[in-house]
Amino acid sequence: MSVLYLPPCPTSCESALQPVSFNECSPEYHWGEISKIYLAPADLDLSGFDVTDLADWTALLADTGDDKIRTLIGIGEMAEPEVSEVETSGNRKAYGNRQYTMLFSVDETNETNYSFAAMTGCNTKYLMWFETSDGILYGGNTGIECTVVFHPIIPRSRKELVTFAGSFKWQAQFPPMRCTSPMY
């Protein structure tokens, strides 16, 4: 399990009310669609890695090599996570780790990518970062430890593409850290 973001949770009965920011004339929006996933072996040595440094990424990004980070290009989404809520004494509630699921579809289905997709059935763990279409990168310096599985989807129609449909799953108490992608 990756611990990526730890907000300053209160340790007493006080409510933690963080500041908010809204701009009526010039609001800041972020657009949807996960467009890239960066995937690495779970045991990749990331000591000294700075997720905001383009040189660090350049040194680690490659389509081959055991100690490198792969770039997957496709279309994805991340829905609201599942979380268990347990009623406890004193009319209180306890919340467990959230179960995140991100769906991602790859439409470039060559033999190399097919072999990659097939190998995800081996039930191994990976480190993952993901980037949205507007250049926001999620995963922090350590990446998100996750499981991944891709399946080939062959449609009935000759007017539709074969794709590899993937699901990325992880558990965490809080959402992953985010920053502006240095690759954007």
Describe the 3D structure.
Strand 6 (125-132) and strand 7 form a beta hairpin. With 184 residues, the protein is mainly beta. The protein contains two helices and ten strands. The two termini are 27 Å apart. It has a six-stranded antiparallel barrel with strand order 1-2-5-9-8-6.
Multimeric status of the protein: single chain
Q: Judging from the principal axes of the Cα atoms, what is the shape?
A: globular
- Biggest sheet record: 6 strands, antiparallel, barrel
**Main β-sheet, spatial strand arrangement:** 1-2-5-9-8-6
**Fraction of helical residues:** under 10%
Give a count of the beta strands, DSSP E runs of length 2 or more: 10
Q: What is the number of independent domains? A: 1
Q: Separation of termini?
A: 27 Å
- The helix-strand sequence is EHEEEEHEEEEE
Q: Output the number of helix runs.
A: 2
The radius of gyration computed from the alpha-carbon positions, rounded to a whole number of angstroms, is 19 Å
Mean pLDDT: 94
**Low-confidence stretches at least 5 residues in length (pLDDT < 50)?**
none
Secondary structure category:
mainly beta
Give the amount of beta strand, in percent.
35-45%
